[in-house]
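Input (structure):
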């Protein structure tokens, strides 16, 4: 692939670029490799086990969350999947059209929507998740079980740090101001 650089090349280029800049290099490497690992794993799983099912990573994560939680509210599914409610709406429509998921109104609050797997969705997850897990084993094959546990614990600590202290840190960095709305990267029309 033109322009593709290995992780080793990228690390060497970053070190050369940053030269004498006073930064926390180990922390930079940790965060950069979290991103690289997540991207590599996601791409591998989408191009292997999920390709045959014609599902994206996000669609599979939504199915997983609903499968594990049973009948969660849409807002909780979006939060657990790490996506916006708008993105969830499109994913749910796709999964509904494939007969894997259905929406139900909340029994006591008509404003809320619950998601549930259909029998076909339950069968799909029971069939596909073992293959997905085989690929999880493949991508971690270079680690022992103990190393996988330590990695999982370390990453859990990163998540907990952000969950428990991230909002306070954001407020501090922004001087108490609300963050600017996210932008798509497109410039506003004239």
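Output (sequence):
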């Amino acid at each position: 692939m033109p322009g593709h650089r290995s992780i080793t090349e990228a690390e060497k280029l970053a070190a050369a670029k940053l030269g004498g800049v006073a930064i926390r290099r180990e922390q930079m490497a940790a965060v950069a490799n979290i991103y690289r690992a997540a991207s590599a794993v996601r791409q591998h799983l989408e191009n292997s086990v999920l390709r045959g099912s014609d599902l994206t990573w996000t669609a599979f994560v939504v199915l997983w969350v609903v499968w594990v939680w049973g009948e969660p509210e849409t807002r909780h599914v979006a939060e657990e999947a790490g996506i916006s409610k708008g993105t969830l709406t499109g994913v749910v429509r796709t999964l509904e059209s494939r007969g894997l998921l259905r929406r139900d109104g909340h029994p006591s609050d008509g404003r809320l929507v619950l998601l549930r797997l259909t029998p076909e969705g339950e069968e799909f997850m029971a069939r596909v998740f073992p293959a997905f897990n085989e690929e999880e084993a493949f991508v971690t094959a270079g680690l022992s079980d103990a190393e996988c546990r330590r990695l999982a614990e370390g990453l859990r600590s990163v998540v907990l740090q952000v969950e428990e202290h991230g909002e306070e840190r954001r407020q501090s960095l922004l001087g108490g101001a609300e963050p600017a709305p996210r932008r798509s990267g497109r410039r506003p029309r004239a």
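Notes: The chain has two domains: 24-141, 142-174. The chain has a mean pLDDT of 88.
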